[in-house]
Amino acid sequence: MGVCKTIDEPSKGVFKDKRSEFLAFAYHVETEEEVKEIRQKIKKKYHDAKHHVYAVKIGCCENELVKMSDDGEPHNSSAPPVLGQIKAFGLSNILIVVVRYFGGKKLGIPGLINAYKTAAKFAIENANIIEQKDEVVLFVHAAFDKLNLIMKYSKKLDFKVVNVDSTQDGYKIKIAADSSQKNKIAEELEKMGCKIQQ
Q1: How far apart (Å, rounded) are the C-alpha atoms in residues 158 and 40?
Q2: pLDDT tens, 122-133?
Q3: What is the fold of 134-197?
Q4: Which residues of 128-139 are buried (b: 16+ CB within 10 A; e: fewer)?
Q5: Mean pLDDT by 10-residue block, N- to C-terminus, for the chain (198 residues)?
């Protein structure tokens, strides 16, 4: 199985320059929904801060999702340096939000780049970095008579059946598999008459 590096618990980094304070928060995330919830909580808690810059990288290999926002800072002065640190440490499934309190003096573009980069770096350095299997989750809709066959295939194709829910016309099965095997598994299950939802 492919392996990614990520962090296991939230961590924080603080950087100050010319009375401006940059608070960086790093979180382990696996879905866009989690990212949305965390960003909302931070905006609510630090509502008096002018900027809430973020960068996120979910998944590794071909499945990766990358998003970021300068949140009102000059274009490319803040989010790209944060994402740069995520990539420099080779991390995935991580969200970093940097909250900035303006200290009254402008830092200029080079100063902003350095501040956001350093705050993100400190948050990562304060985190516990772990290895995580690069898995993808698929939802399979299968007829009632296909369940035993899918269980049999799980050993052959090396995927895990995480959850099985009954529906009116069959089962909704949640499976987890190595991301590199995703297409092969989907193809085999579709041949059996199953519908795949990602």
Answers
A1: 38
A2: 999 999 999 877
A3: Alpha-Beta Plaits (3.30.70)
A4: eeeebebbbebe
A5: 83 96 95 93 96 92 82 95 96 96 93 98 96 78 88 83 87 82 84 82
